[in-house]
Amino acid sequence: MDVEAKLSRNTAKRAVVVGPIAVGLAWLLAGTDGAIAAAIGVAVVVGNFLLAGWILSVAARISPGAYHAAALFGFVIRFGLLTVTVILVTTLMELDRVTFAIATVATYLVLLTWETVAVSRGSERELEWTR
Question: For the chain, which has fewer Cβ within 10 Å, the N-terminal or C-terminal residue?
Answer without folding.
Answer: C
